[in-house]
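Human:
Take a look at this sequence-structure pair and walk me through the tokens.
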Amino acid sequence: MRKIRKGDQVVVIAGKDRGRRGTVLQVVEEGRRVIVEGINVAKKHQRPNPNAVPPIEGGIVDKEMPIAISNVMVFNPKTKKGDRVGFQVDEDGVKRRVFKSTGEPVDV
């Protein structure tokens, strides 16, 4: 079980986008990096490909690049800040992610 998953709201804590919030689109490289919507955007020169389905136009496109997982924290809506995540096993034997500061579950 991972501390940060696809679909989580995260806050960037280091780098050029520090303080910005976004949604995790993908976890890459065995959980070492994440792609966050609207964060760490780079310009990419793209060659046209008329044979692709759908056809790809050429030009300069904005693309979200991976960011190190250590540079993001899961956003806690109660405290309105980034928070550390831990694990807790319920009496049912189900392992859940919880915020370290409040002890409330991450997945609501």
